[in-house]
Amino acid sequence: MSAKVSVTIKDVALAAGCGVATASRVLNNSGPASADVRERVERAARDMGFSFSATGRALQSRRSMTVGCLVPSLANPVFAEAVQGVQAELSGSGYQLLISCSNYDERADNAAIEMLLSKDADALIATMVAPDRSIALTNAIRRGLPVSLMFHDPLEGFVTSYVDNFEAAREVARQFAEVGHRRTGFLALRFSTSDRSRNRYAGFHAECRARGLPDPALIEIGEAEATHPESLAAILCQYPKLTAIFASNDFLAISVQKAARLLGWRVPQDLSVAGFDGIEIGKLLEVPLATIETEPEAMGRQAARIILEHLQGRAPGQLPALPFLFRAGATLVAPNPGKNDDGRDAAQPSSALLAETSSQTRTNR
Amino acid sequence: MSAKVSVTIKDVALAAGCGVATASRVLNNSGPASADVRERVERAARDMGFSFSATGRALQSRRSMTVGCLVPSLANPVFAEAVQGVQAELSGSGYQLLISCSNYDERADNAAIEMLLSKDADALIATMVAPDRSIALTNAIRRGLPVSLMFHDPLEGFVTSYVDNFEAAREVARQFAEVGHRRTGFLALRFSTSDRSRNRYAGFHAECRARGLPDPALIEIGEAEATHPESLAAILCQYPKLTAIFASNDFLAISVQKAARLLGWRVPQDLSVAGFDGIEIGKLLEVPLATIETEPEAMGRQAARIILEHLQGRAPGQLPALPFLFRAGATLVAPNPGKNDDGRDAAQPSSALLAETSSQTRTNR
DNA sequence: ATCTAATGTGGAAACGTTTCCAGTTGGAGA
DNA sequence: TCTCCAACTGGAAACGTTTCCACATTAGAT
């Protein structure tokens, strides 16, 4: 109706014939007001289509009711789901989500944090290349701003929501070893910018060592190879002796299967594969993917809950790691004696059996 | 260093021994200042770690430098990628992204728009159940707030970034028909809350009609069936005569393959399948998925560009649809004469051939 | 009838900016 | 020396809220 661009509480007060203080009290139910004036104010507000200006409120209350969130990329479903979890948990709390993406770039990380801070975010939830190296972030913490990380393993001075990458990777090594794999490889994307990837390798490596197995091959690849099965195949070619590959995420694991197919290798007969993350599609594949199942959305929710508690004055400490689950899948079976050339190879039972059984191992720390 | 929670321009001015007006001019490079005072202000700001309060600025300038964005869910990679595109395009423009998700709920849609408006968003980018029914949204437009939709087909009174769902679906019908399919089905998730789904069905239906083929079966399913291949199989069972299914998105198409497998049907020999969206993983499958390739990220970028232009005073009109591409895949071949029971069936040539050739049809409107 | 207390009310300050405007300075030209 | 103008400067208002405080009104108690 009214062409007024934006109607303020002053306009409402004027229309209702009272002071702004009274109008504010009525509209917020924050103080006494006679039935009479209450009615007038409410009607005026309704008629004029009044709504509070969050900016005005933020300025006066020193709270923007906004939570800043930084993730490497929303194109990676794992982060997207985590953000979805954050958003879901925040929704209804009155807090809104301010989003930023760094594209796995450390400089962008810092710029983004500074941007979020200058937007007066009341709290920060982040996954970064190197949280501990971010001056902006540590400053924020020092100033008492609630900060909570996602995906990062525990880090001195930070609170984080995470799965224990090291332990989960050990579990994969265990599964590999138990069916008889000796020569294994870890396929890593963004090894240098992802502590997750590094910790997974560390756990995988540690467990192999502990079992007296050869060290796993560390195969680092770039964005290009990850999205181009032909390039990936060219790389895999250089590791003909491996009988099993642990990929640092499910998408990569599926690419490995494709690359193997291009090379004429059969999965799992010629090469076993396991992934990480537990994306839904892995279960639907013709050869279901063995993987570590995680719940990014739960991670986001936990991070948001921590922030919310902080914001309400409580100061929750570090929570234990979120659970993960080794999901058995047909991509992982005993190595093919033909390919494995170092004497002792395990003649494990069937393959298809393990695949369709949903025997899963729940681990929790 | 200083334990001061937040340092304002007033503090800086005080430290530099000048008025706030001068400090503001220096810090913004927005007016004259002697070299002397300029130097003092800049040093004070640096020493005290001053940064502008976006809130203060927003209040005085009436611009929050914030763009509100509403999508059904970030758990759906298609939307997540679109948001990533928006974010990427916005980054560097000074605008920040305020995110909200509705979970495909019309009521939540409206509440979210109102929330974003009350947060003083300078513009809105949205994908909703029913943009045209949203009072909050139409009000926003009437007030002159830049609004741009994503994914929705053109709608009176709105500007949208989209692919032509109707045409794309016709293309699928054409591809189905050309290899000889007559009895086809359209598998729809969230038919009632997604105009995309409805328009795809409409296009598919129209093209079948135009070719004198039987109307495609409309198979509506819920969230539960979509994520549970067993349930999906039970439903597919009821349509034994179909030789090809067009699923309203790729994830669903992959689920169909799984369900078919559970029923002992072979894809593509017993059932051809095509999807929509063109997610990357479709290419990596053992039986690569035939699908309509789209670029959600480009969609987000376009929406953001439109908004940015609006914000700079230009008023760009509706742009043409974004291009789509029919991606051939091994899931689509000629129907198996054995299954097709109505007399005239096409004895098309090979199957595997069509699969591995990457002959793709580019369409644009 | 007076006193107290509770209730209602609105003016004004504060939050952090930017910008208008008026004032002060200094130097150049007459 | 006087005038004028440009360059610089800072006070104050405004943006939309909330909240403190003081004031007025009323009802209840003595």
Span of the ends, CA to CA of chain A: 60 Å
Please state how the strands of the largest beta sheet of chain A are arranged side by side. 7-6-8-9-10-11-12
- Give the biggest beta sheet of chain A: 7 strands, mixed
Strand fraction of chain A: 5-15%
Oligomer: homodimer
Low-confidence stretches of chain A: 339-365
Strands of chain A, count: 12
Topology of chain A as a string of helices (H) and strands (E): HHHHEHEHEHEEHEHEHHEHEHEHEHE
Explain what this protein looks like in three dimensions.
In chain A, strands 7-6-8-9-10-11-12 form a 7-stranded mixed sheet, sandwiched between helices. Chain A starts with 8 loop residues before the first helix and ends with a strand. With 365 residues, chain A is of the alpha/beta class. Helix content of chain A is 42%, strand content 15%. Chains A and B meet through helix 4, helix 5, strand 2, helix 6 and helix 12 of A and helix 4, helix 5, strand 2, helix 6 and helix 12 of B. Strand 2 of chain A pairs antiparallel with strand 2 of chain B, so a sheet runs across the interface. The structure holds a DNA duplex (30 and 30 nucleotides).
